[in-house]
Each structure stands twice: as structure tokens, then as C-alpha cells.
Amino acid sequence: MTVTVVTGAASGMGRACAERLRGRADHLVAVDVRDPGIDGAIGVRCDITDRSAVEELVGRVRGLGPFAALAHAAGLSPTMADPRRIVEVNLVGTVHLLDAFEPLVVAGSAAVCFASSAGYLPLELLGPELAELINGPRAEGFLDRAGALLHDSGMAYAWSKKGVQLEAAKAAVRWGPRGGRVVSVSPGLIDTPMGRQEFEQQPIMQQMLDQTPLGRLGHAEEVAALVAFLLSADASFVSGIDILIDGALGAASAGMPA
Questions:
Q1: At what angle are helices 12-21 and 193-201 packed, to 10 degrees?
Q2: Candidates 157, 159, 185, 189; catalytic one
Q3: Which domains are delineated in the chain?
Q4: How far apart are CA 10 and CA 18, in angstroms?
Q5: Whether this model's pTM surpasses 0.70
Q6: Phi first, then psi: what are they for 141, rounded to 5°?
Q7: What pLDDT score was predicted for residue 125?
Q8: Whether 157 is catalytic
Q9: Per-residue confidence (pLDDT) for residue 234, from 0 to 100
Q10: What are phi and psi of 110, to 5 degrees?
């Protein structure tokens, strides 16, 4: 009786993952801060920034059966919160989940953590303090230091998603000896309610879309298809990396010749 868990399952890419993964395991646990309301799934309300709530979630999963897969899509975009809260949800929440699920890992277990194309910002551009701090999200006072150093929500978002990429790679090293895998995926411009909110409030989003070689937004279902592959046995030797799904925006931004 295997168990698949999807966070951020109420809407957007998390919802698309839950719909795509439904039926892949004996139990689908759909997690969000509000009731995900997905037919055929076990809905769980959970604030991933609350370590005790995450541990309670993991205890529930343990009681259902062997842990098969985690698609961790919960997160905040720049217009949704202040810098400290963005780091708390995106990075600290990811750390809580990866740490709490680690004891459940068995051969074949896999996790996909949602980062972002924004996470490809070079760390050296952030300065030495932030470049060092990103490696210590479990340290005492981490959030206070991050909140003091990050004065812009957009920068906090990019920094936190870089942290997700790093934490997923570290978890892959820890999970590997037990037969488990961890990867991160970094979506670019995807047509979701969160993405539409960013377009409404940030003019740079349209500029980015205009630079995207495929000339369109991605769809949540396209990201979910990638996640489903990465969580499947077909990807059984894929671990410890980030996969960019951005319609070649990153390549265009890097000045690759046409």
C-alpha cells in the first residue's frame, strides 16, 4: 500500500501534479494550508513552516504504508509576502519536509522539490554574507539573518529557490544509500493563478515572456508530466540535479546564439 504525497495541491502546479499522480500509488495524500478538495485523495491541511505539523503529516504517511513519492510544490512568489516569509515557506519549509521524510525512505522512494528558474541567479551576485548563509538553513537565527539581509521580495524569492536546489542535491546524497532519489525542478513562466498575479503586478514578467524562444507560457500540466516522469521507475538513475523547464528562456538570457 504505497503512498504518494503532493504539497501545494490546492491549485496551480501542485494541483496538476496531484491530478497527474492520482492512481500511481495506493494512497495519494494532498497537502495544502487549506483543504485541497481532490476526489480520491486524502486531504491534509499543513503549514510546512511548522516542523511539528510536518512531523504529524509524516506520521500519518507512515501509518498508510511505504513512502513512494513526494512532489513538493508548495511555495510563495514575490508578490505574496515579505522577504522573511518567502524564505520561511520556500526554503525552510522544504528543509522540514526533506528532513522529516528521510526516515521513511526505502528503495524506490523519490522526491521532486519545486525550485524556480529564478534560482539560477549566480550566488556571487548576492554578496558573501548571503552566499554563506544559504548553506545553513537549519542554523539558529537563520530566518532573522535572512530577513535582515534580504530587503526585496524578488531577491528573497530567487535566493530561497537557489536554496531549494542546493537542499535537494544534499538530500539526494543522504537518501541515495537507502535507494532513494531527490531532484529539483525549476519552472520558468507557467500559466497558474500565482503566475498571473505576478504578471499583473510586475511588468518584467511580460519582458521575460517576450524573450522566451518558445513564445508562450508553460502549462501546469507540462510541469506535472515532468514531475511524474522523475518520480517514476523510468527515472531510476536521475538524482541530485535540477531540471530547468522554461521554454529556453534561460538559454536566451545567457546569450546563446540563434
A1: 160
A2: 157
A3: 3-247 (3.40.50.720)
A4: 9
A5: yes
A6: 80, 10
A7: 78
A8: yes
A9: 98
A10: -150, 150
User: CA-CA distance, 13 to 26, in Å (whole number)?
Assistant: 22
C-alpha cell at 91: 526554503
Q: What is the DSSP code string of the chain?
A: --EEEEESTTSHHHHHHHHHHTTSSSEEEEEESS----TTSEEEE--TT-HHHHHHHHHHHHHHS-EEEEEE-----GGGS-HHHHHIIIIIHHHHHHHHHGGG--TT-EEEEE--GGGGS-GGGG-HHHHHHTT-TTSTTHHHHHHHH---HHHHHHHHHHHHHHHHHHHHHHHGGGT-EEEEEEE-SEESHHHHHHHHH-THHHHHHHH-TT-S-EEHHHHHHHHHHHTSGGGTT--S-EEEESTTHHHHHTT---
Distance CA 29, CA 40 (A): 9
Residue whose C-alpha cell reads 538570457 in the numeric block? 253
Q: What is the mean pLDDT of residues 175-194?
A: 97
